[in-house]
Amino acid sequence: MRLLITRPEPQASSWVSSLHQQGVDAAALPLIAIDGPADPQPVRALWQHLNEARLLMFVSPSAADWFFRLKPANQGAQQHTWPPSTLAAAPGPGTAQALLKFGQAAGLRVDHILSPGADADQYDSETLWPLLQPLDWQNQTVWIISGGDRQDARGRTWLSEQLRARGAQVTSLLTYQRAPAHWTPTQQTTAQTAIAQPAQHAWLFSSSEAIDHLTGHLTPDQAWNQSTALATHPRIAERAQQAGFGRIIATRPTIEAVANALRSLQSTARIDTMNS
Asked: Which domain holds residue 227?
């Protein structure tokens, strides 16, 4: 069974490489395209006042990538070194790792980052909140570093509400834009093969928006009742069910968990074939 990785690039290819090391037949089929914001000036302005922020919460690896890409250059090293009093938060270890990768050159350290551990049941705002809740947020400035469509920043609404209820001033900042991916001819062939042979393929979804792009933009007239979705969060599983996927498998969003979920699925399929 081939697993289709629908994350944006370069995450999709990175996951494919790691899954190959686990013995999984995987292929990159991104459903979301990532680009920088149409107006990068708000991001550069935040860099100039970073020491005034108590927390920057990065919603995804792409948010971390583009925030540090847009760091102003040639304006004084000290002005743009990560302030010791400013924290960075991530909903899961993937985003935390991206923060370190992209932020170390700016002075970001491990002890600046708050994130659920790799053994957490879910990687989301609700799991992150217990790490933030004990801190004093009265009159503190918080930025939700997120992405969106065109010019609308999409932050973590629930988390923002919790912080505001404790006196924080919370603002969402758009550092990248999301749009439906445009497949190459090879990727189009991969998708067509998966649709024609649903028993030999499974789709890995790490975003509800990715499902929307697949079912509403890239293949709007396709029925999915014979297809299998692996979903990395209950809300994504719910969206896959709404989209009509016939089989939905819940999995934690780690390479090992996804590989094990696929192996379990393959074992079940073999047993079903033998019994039939």
From this structure: 2-31+184-275
